[in-house]
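Training component of the fellowship. As part of building independent skills, the fellow (R.M.) carried out the full modelling exercise for a liganded target. The chosen ligand was zinc ion. The inputs are recorded below so that the supervisory panel can assess the work.
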Amino acid sequence: MSILNVEVIKSYVRMCNDGWLQGWHERNGGNLTYRMTKEEVEACKDSFTYERPWVPMGVTAENLAGEFFIATGSGKYFRNVILAPEENICIAELNAKGDAYRVVWGLTKGGRPTSEFPSHIMNHSVKKAATDGAHRVIYHAHPGNIIAMTFVLPLTDKAFTKALWTSATECPVVFPGGVGVVQWMVPGGADIAMATSELMKKYDAAVWAHHGLFCSGPDFDTTFGLMHTIEKAAEIYVKALSCGQGIRQTISDQQLLDIARDFGIKLNEELLG
Ligand code: 13P
Ligand code: ZN
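Fellow's submitted model of the complex:
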């Protein structure tokens, strides 16, 4: 069977295209990585080759040593993934120290994994530890409304979480832990990787000021759904403010707690008030 017919590759490609259709991936914007299971590696490994060089990542993730990741290519366009997956995505193996990778499949016309690979790897490392291995997907996108919010709200976890929770009633149920906010930083390096992964110890989503959003989850549906829910809430918030009257009424802290009680959700109460 062709690797392109393996279920995990098909699901990965579908998610790339879903993100493109949402308008979150202008040009080469955004990136997606997935930590493969042993069974998925087994299903794909007949297509692997091992002649490409090991490349240092600038970060170390000991708990990911020897693992395989599906990744979008740096500079590749999400809109092209569905047309030619083997040219635009790859599978990368981490070495025994967890500080370098080599591409074992894909990027057939050249290239390297996303420039945000260090951020993805640090987030995978933190989330693997925090969720006992459950989280496998890290997704970075450039959704317009959440980015717009970073120009008008204080860049704090509390301000963003409250604005998003109160913009759509389902939000506290979908991300009861809240969202973190990373101040503006140069993308693509070890510093932004460390800052983001620090927040990911607490949250499943981190806003990058004036840039985009990182989400983590156990599978493609949940992670895409988290990105979608946050961006939809951001759209409502931006639209409401754009009416020009300010926010006249909203969901109160007590009402957020009422939702949590009835849905059996543990809300991060540090972010209320
Ligand atoms: P890549 O093309 O290297 O994935 O970069 C896109 C991006 O969104 C950087 O933050
Ligand atoms: Zn980006």
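The panel noted the following from the submitted structure. The CA atoms of residues 60 and 99 lie 4 Å apart. The chain has a mean pLDDT of 98.
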